[in-house]
Amino acid sequence: MNQECERYETYTLKVDSVFAPANNSFIGYINIPLRNVVKAEVLSASISSNIYTGSSNVAYLYAMELDSKFNDRMDVQTTITSFNSNTMATPQTSNIGPNLSGTFSNLNQIRTSLVAIPMEPVNLRTVFTVSNYFPTEVEYIEPIRQIQQLTISLYNERGGLLTVSGPTFLTLRLTCSKPNRCLY
To answer: Which of 2, 42, 57, 96 sits at a 20 to 30 Å CA gap from 85?
Structure first.
């Protein structure tokens, strides 16, 4: 019987930093390279970090191979209001554009990150799952031809690498555009 069952193949990838030299930046190698990736989704993340140690209020999860221009972090509009207290003149407000007062390293990685995960202020481990938060899928108009590894980085709210005190565990789902033939 030669009929088409599916138009896509879906792969679930689990990657962790248990044997990596760093828990905030590591590479996971895929056993069988994936071709024609049309969608990526973060299913879960478990990050060992506590904001009381000065780490961050949010963790930006970035995978270099899954970079997409359809993910973006917005800039904040900054206004300055000035007035002279010795006169009764109306205060002057000036719009000066995006807030450039904060220096961001890795700004592009934060902008194109797969997800911004709110960190837990009380727990020593933040657990993110799609069912508890929101969908995190990214679709690619032009398929990614081949992925052999995932270069994972976790960034804090200022663009530096997130301070992580233990292993990081991630589960991702990648969908590939390749017709399957039913074998049953």
So the answer is: 96
Q: How far is CA 23 from CA 5, 43, 60, 63, in A?
A: 40, 19, 14, 14
Other C-beta atoms within 10 Å of 143: how many? 15
Q: Residue 146: which CATH number?
A: 2.60.120.1100
Token couple for 165: 């005190």
| Domain span holding position 12 | 8-74+103-177
Tell me the pairing of strands 125-129 and 137-155: unpaired
In a domain, 151, yes or no: yes
81-134 confidence digits (pLDDT tens): 555 556 555 655 555 555 555 555 666 677 778 888 888 766 777 888 877 667
The answer to whether position 48 is within a domain reads: yes
Number of folded domains that form the chain: 1
- 104 residue type, one letter: F
DSSP annotation string for 5-70: --SEEEEEEEEE-TTSS-SSEEEEEEEEEEEEEEEEEEEEEEEE--GGGT--SEEEEEEGGG--TT
Q: Is residue 82 part of a domain?
A: no
